[in-house]
Specification:
mainly beta, two-stranded parallel ribbon, L,D-transpeptidase catalytic domain-like
Amino acid sequence: MPYHSIFIHTSSRKLELYEGNRLIRHYPIAVGKGATPTPTGHYTIATKTVYPGGVFGSRWMGLSIQGYGIHGTNNPASIGQAVSKGCIRMHNHDAESLFQQIEIGTPVIIQR
């Protein structure tokens, strides 16, 4: 099975999916606003949920830091903005694509 990792760049609002050392996809994202920034650091995917409900769109990928995750959105116009409470928002179709390609335990590196 291929080894995947996720790099999130909060300043450029971009999520990159790597297979080994090779960039295979990149996605536009929304990140935390000034008062509730997306936490930088090294985490892993801890949970995966289909149709979590509410503002989380069609997919939820919970991080190993409690209360934060990568998820879809019911507000696609927010993608590209710094508007969340710290989570990483994606277009639902992008969240579904990412969800299919990663496993529990996938490393997630969040940097500015």
